[in-house]
Known about the structure:
By secondary structure, the protein is mostly helical. It has 5 helices and 2 strands, in the order βαααααβ.
Amino acid sequence: MTKAVIPAQALDMARKAAARVRELEAEADEALHGRGDAAGHRGLMIEKCETLADLPERVEQVASEADTPAAEEFLSGLADFARRAGQAMDLGSIFYMTALLYPEDYVAGEKNDLERFLDGFDAA
């Protein structure tokens, strides 16, 4: 199966954001379970959602330069992640913010939905 090809810079930016999301989740987990800091946990989950919500806008110019169906698919997928992150923030639901990228049957150590989505693309 061939992967859709998009500009390398756009894919790199998205992968860096995905890595940042993982860092924020780890920091949030430590805040809540390591220090009992619910407010710190909440702040980090909001930052996670903001990172996801800002992602399409951050990569749009670079990705859209390709003007291909793959670039459109890439931006559309990122927009969906952003939309769901925005919903989680609008609801103020920590549960939704925490579970945002994880299916119900998620197993620790596996890739999350964003990482799996990005794996469907190759850099041009």
